[in-house]
Design a protein that fits this description.
By secondary structure, the chain is of the alpha+beta class. It has a single domain, classed as Nuclear Transport Factor 2, Chain: A (Roll). The protein is 17% helix and 37% strand. It binds zinc ion.
């Protein structure tokens, strides 16, 4: 039976913009749209982590630093809780950095990742290069 009292609420994007997934990172993960700036790419990669979308993570990783496979913390429940983008700078047309916090729970313990990620614009799209954990 369909529960008629349950209002349809479109799910919010995990990256925390307040937009629906379809209007936010879903455009990149599902519709093959290309993020036009590094912060949008960074947000869509965070969302890809929450959804275990290895295909998207690898596709947006620059070939010079991309791992062959992703190292998942296998066996440990890893729950992503939220993303805060602190800074987005573009010191050159083809270079950008994004500083962010990502909160998660690993094996029941709260964990906060603070990273400055580097991005490069190449062949008409942004790619993740690497990041420094702080
Ligand atoms: Zn999003």
């Amino acid at each position: 039976m369909i529960d008629r009292n349950k209002a349809h609420t479109p799910s919010q994007c995990p990256c925390g913009t307040g937009l629906t997934y379809t209007a936010c990172c879903g455009r990149y993960l599902e519709q093959a749209e290309i993020p036009d700036h590094a912060e949008a790419l960074m947000r869509s990669r965070y969302t890809a982590y929450t959804l275990d979308r290895d295909d998207y993570l690898l596709a947006t990783w620059h070939h010079s630093t991309r791992p062959a496979v992703l190292n998942h913390i296998s066996g440990t429940p890893h729950k992503w809780l939220g993303l805060t983008v602190k800074r987005h700078e573009q010191p050159a047309p083809d270079r950008a950095i994004v500083e962010f916090f990502a909160r998660s729970k690993v094996g029941g313990r709260a964990h906060r990742l603070h990273e400055i990620s580097r991005f490069v614009h190449e062949n008409g799209r942004w790619f993740y290069i690497d990041g420094d954990m702080i």
